[in-house]
Write a structure and sequence with these properties.
Structural class of chain A: mainly beta
Order of helices and strands of chain B: EEEEEEEEEEE
Distance between the termini of chain A: 35 Å
Number of strands of chain A: 11
Strand content of chain B: over 45%
Distance between the termini of chain B: 41 Å
Oligomer: heterodimer
Largest sheet of chain B: 6 strands, mixed
Radius of gyration of chain A: 13 Å
Helix content of chain A: under 10%
Number of strands of chain B: 11
Largest sheet of chain A: 7 strands, mixed
Chain lengths: 114, 109
């Protein structure tokens, strides 16, 4: 079972560069999420999607963009990377938005902006 | 805004001891409370999900309680083993998950 797959696992960017973090799930889940986790902190929600074509901002959306053209994929785009975006990024999906079933998480992308 | 706090931030116990992990949240209007385990370099794995109408949930050696009115949940792990060493996070679900910073547990053999 693949579950939620994130690529790449590690990446180093220079300030001002852009990149896309990929996330795909094979569970046919409608809900998908992007979080960031900073050292010693809980996960913070960046963006989420309740279905293909529908996205919405979370708690910390500035500096990021998302799209959801298919049920399976939910890429996160960083434009003009800044040192403050150094973090571990997690993608998650769920069947029912967490009402009765927990979210399933990928293994994360560790991103450093230098 | 929902604020979730986990105390202590770290815990070290000898093998066989029972573990008690605490989680508090500020807004009691939640759908459920979820506990996750995170191993180094890995994502989160769901352990238990307690609905707001429930008082506790059990899975094997794990038991989680929920007191919504006081904004508290506790995760109990019985007879700890070195394999239980990990970071444990709780999250309050009021349509979106709000996470605590976690408790890092070390079980000494």
């Amino acid at each position: 079972n693949a579950g939620v797959t994130q690529t790449p696992k590690f990446r180093i960017l220079k300030i001002g560069q852009s990149m896309t973090l990929q996330c795909t799930q094979d569970m046919n889940h409608n809900y998908m999420y992007w979080y960031r986790q900073d050292p010693g902190m809980g996960l913070k929600l960046i963006y989420y999607s309740v279905g293909a074509g529908i996205t919405d901002k979370g708690e910390v959306p500035n500096g990021y963009n998302v799209s959801r053209s298919t049920t399976e994929d939910f890429p996160l785009r960083l434009e003009l990377a800044a040192p403050s975006q150094t973090s571990v990024y997690f993608c998650a999906s769920s069947h029912d938005g967490g009402a009765y079933q927990p979210q399933h998480f990928g293994d994360g992308t560790r991103l450093s902006i230098l | 805004k929902q604020e979730v706090t986990q105390i202590p931030a770290a815990l070290s116990v000898p093998e066989g001891e029972n573990l008690v992990l605490n989680c508090s949240f500020t807004d009691s209007a939640i759908y459920n409370l979820q506990w996750f385990r995170q191993d180094p370099g890995k994502g989160l794995t769901s352990l238990l999900l307690i609905q707001s109408s429930q008082r506790e949930q059990t899975s094997g050696r794990l038991n989680a309680s929920l007191d919504k009115s006081s904004g508290r949940s506790t995760l109990y792990i019985a007879a700890s083993q070195p394999g239980d060493s990990a970071t444990y996070l709780c999250a309050a679900n009021d349509y979106k998950l709000s996470f605590g910073a976690g408790t890092t547990v070390t079980v000494r053999a």
